[in-house]
Amino acid sequence: MSVAKKPVERRKHRRLSISNGAFVALRPHYQRIGQVVDISMGGLAFTYMADQESPNRSFEADIFLAGGVFCCQGVPFRTISDCESYGTAFSSIKMRRSGLQFGELTPQQQVQLERFIQEHTTPREAQP
């Protein structure tokens, strides 16, 4: 009898859920804009409409709150994952989920991100 092993968590930073509407827009022309699902000091995950244009060589993102208030601009990143999202079974809109790993942040970006995480997140529920 084989016992399934729990996957090993490789992230350095704990992921946190967003407690209110936060969004990410990929620069330079905002070809992809989506809603942030979770965030940490190391990166974030977001969902977006699958029919949006794929960005051409995008390496920076802006993170902002509903209402257009920016909390962190020009955040360097690399895409870690991008796959179909299966969140809404009854929707005809295809969604995707993308995972970004932050690059080297400036001291100002680090402070802005830490503040954003303190003020706008809640701990994620333990995953089975």
Task: Describe it.
- This protein has 128 residues and is mostly beta strands.
- The chain has a single domain (16-120), classed as Beta Barrel (Thrombin, subunit H), CATH 2.40.10.
- Helix content is 11%, strand content 44%.
- The protein is built from one helix and eight strands.
- The protein has one helix spanning 107-120, and strands at residues 16-18, 22-26, 33-39, 43-49, 60-65, 69-85, 95-102, 121-123.
- A six-stranded antiparallel beta barrel has the order 2-3-4-7-6-5.
- A hairpin with a 6-residue loop joins strand 2 and strand 3.
- The longest helix is centred in the C-terminal third of the chain and has 14 residues, at 107-120.
- It starts with 15 loop residues before the first strand and ends in a 5-residue tail after the last strand.
